Amino acid sequence: MKILIPTPLRQYADKQAAIDINGATVGEALGNLTSRYGDLRKHLYTDDGKLRAFVNVYVNDEDIRYLSKEQTPVKQGDTIAIVPSIAGGVFVDCVIE
Amino acid sequence: MAVDNKITLNNDEVLRYSRHLIMPEVGMEGQLKLKAAKVLTIGAGGLGSPLAMYLAAAGVGTIGVVDFDVVDFTNLQRQIIHGTSDVGRKKLDSAAETLKEINPFVDVRKFELRLSSDNALELFREFDIVVDGTDNFPTRYLVNDACVLTGKPNVYGSIFRFEGQASVLATPQGPCYRCWYPEPPPPGLVPSCAEGGVLGILPGLVGVIQATETVKLILGKGDPLIGRVLLVDALGMKFRELKLRKDPNCPVCGPNRTITRLIDYQQFCGIRGEEAPVTTTVPEMTVEELKRRLDAKEDLFVLDVREPHEYQICNLNGYLLPLGDLPKRVHELDSSREIVAHCRSGVRSAKAVDFLRQAGFKKVKNLAGGILAWADKIDPKMPKY
Q: Is residue A18 within 8 angstroms of chain B, CB to CB?
């Protein structure tokens, strides 16, 4: 299935906007995604492995928090969307890591 | 909202709004609702510009504008409420003038202030709807909480580069911003500046979506984006819709709310006071010294850690090695040579110098103020960006 990568995170996923990934659940699919693109991991997950609170994940149009969170099953044809909070296009001249 | 029976349209207004009046979805009744409405727009910038202009054109009777900033050349690429001759003026004055020119029947109320926990509640109470066109997380959460606490809908729009989001939050039955994003991103995970910038037309697209939603709320017509988020991808010209649910455990709009007053939003977002510039901890070279040494043909290696598209705007003939690539390309640099690293304003290059020193480079300095300082002090013909 497809995982849609939001603009702020594309730099960590080889600049791609959508990536084909397999997985039986959202958690598995995201795990496969972050295995392939290691830099994405810290932007999606805290050090203790929890999805960051300012990043929401949707299967098709439904927030996984209202489904079965990372246990939400996914199948071919589903779209997983990663949607972080955004607040502007300010040109801030500093790399904050 | 109830219409004051004393509100009427004069003949000039009837002519002005004729294209609304002949439409059953608006009609005289709807136009009077627009005239009676009081909308507060936070920010007269990228989002605020188009949305305030369209609200004025539509005949919203009272438009409040909150902004404390001054018009800058770099704003003109997207903040169309301001023009070239407005550079240097207060955004509020420039915006109010434009709105009155579009529609002199609008009562434009200016609020030259930084929205804060001290002034938000009192301000919001004077209006019916709040439209959020701000550009930072602390204000987003402040506006949201103040809208929930005062019972005013928050017509939300936000953008980043070429993507946008729009929704109508903080309605009694609908979700609020905290239902959607309970916590802000820590400042440490904000994308890098080289990835910043914004497609000028994008806030135009999203701002007018916000204006549309505002008008729909006033008219009570159509399906507003309550419980829904519209995601806009301008490059792909794709629009996606996501469901947004009201969180039963939301601390500010849920039945067991714990937040009943406005908080310190800077602290909530992890920003404590001014961020200390990184430049103070690495060895520096001034642009004057660089100029002197280059003119004297000294053996100095100029390292440019900006992005390729920035190099095309202006450069010092430096060796281009973007900061993000430094770890894997550091072997291209000769640590026996004296290196001066620069970026646009000196912040990214300070990080580069820090990295190189930790990698064992002993003769590396940061160009204080970056290429902007060079354009200021050494070569005024160099473009600034």
A: no
**Residue A43 pLDDT grade (very low, low, confident, very high; cuts 50, 70, 90):** confident
Q: Nearest CA of chain B to the CA of A22: how many Å?
A: 22
**Segment B337-366 mean pLDDT:** 91
* pLDDT for the residue B185: 78
Q: What H or E segment, with its residue span, contains residue B298?
A: none
**In this structure, are residues A19 and A13 in contact, taking their beta carbons and an 8 Å threshold?**
yes
Kindly report the CATH number that applies to the domain delimited by B37-268.
Answer: 3.40.50.720
Q: Is B244 on the interface with A (CB under 8 A)?
A: yes
Q: What is the ipTM of this complex?
A: 0.87
What average pLDDT does the segment B84-110 reach?
A: 97
Within 8 A by CB and 6+ apart from B244, the residues are A63, B167, B174, B175, B179, B180, B227, B228, B229
What are the residues facing B239 on neighbouring strands? B232
CATH of domain B278-377: 3.40.250.10
Q: Name, in order, each residue with C-beta under 8 angstroms of B383's C-beta and a sequence gap of 6 or more.
A: B313, B314, B375
Instruction: Compare all CA atoms of chain B with the CA of A83 and give the residue at the minimum distance.
Output: B231
Are B191 and A86 in contact (CB < 8 Å)?
no
Q: What is the CATH number of the domain that holds A27?
A: 3.10.20.30
Q: Is the CB of A24 inside 8 Å of chain B's CB atoms?
A: no
Mean pLDDT score of chain B:
91
Mutation target among B232, B240, B310, B355 for the A interface, most CBs of A within 10 A: B240
- What percent of chain A has pLDDT above 90? 56
Look at residue A95 and tell me if it is in a domain: no
